[in-house]
Amino acid sequence: MFRRNQPPREGRTVPDGSNEARLRALGHLLDQRGYDGRGLCILEVADGFEVTGLKLPERGAAYDLTQHTEHIPAAELATLMAHLRQQG
Fold first, then answer.
1. Whether 53 contacts 35, CB under 8 Å
2. What is the CB neighbour count within 10 angstroms for residue 63?
3. Alpha-carbon distance 53 to 69, whole Å?
4. Hey, what long-range contacts does 67-76 have (CB within 8 A, 24 or more apart)?
5. What are the tens digits of pLDDT across the range 39-62?
6. Are 51 and 40 in contact (CB under 8 A)?
7. Nearest-5° angle of CA 21, CA 33, CA 50?
8. CA 28 from centroid of its chain's CA atoms
9. Nearest-CA neighbor of 68 among 43, 80, 50, 47?
């Protein structure tokens, strides 16, 4: 039996400004800032996102998860989306 090799699939391009691109960038920021993946509340506001969630403790901290709320501006997400796009 002969088998034809499939050509390698090229990476799918995520359109700029799409929900997928914005939420990928937001997820990247939340991971960098130490948010736990459970119990996040993310609200889109006119100029970005309001995020409330549990943050993981700093290395060596004597306490457990803490609740934290912050505003992530749309401009910060746009900058990160451009950076992620350049990385491929």
1. yes
2. 7
3. 7
4. 68/35, 70/33, 71/45, 72/26, 72/29, 72/48, 73/47, 73/48, 74/47, 74/48, 75/48, 76/29, 76/48
5. 899 999 989 999 999 987 777 666
6. yes
7. 60
8. 3
9. 50
According to DSSP, residue 35 is labeled: B
- Are the beta carbons of 56 and 30 closer than 8 angstroms? no
The amino acid sitting at 26 is L
Provide the whole-model pTM: 0.73
Q: Is 19 helix (H, G, I), strand (E, B) or coil?
A: helix
Determine the pLDDT at residue 88.
66
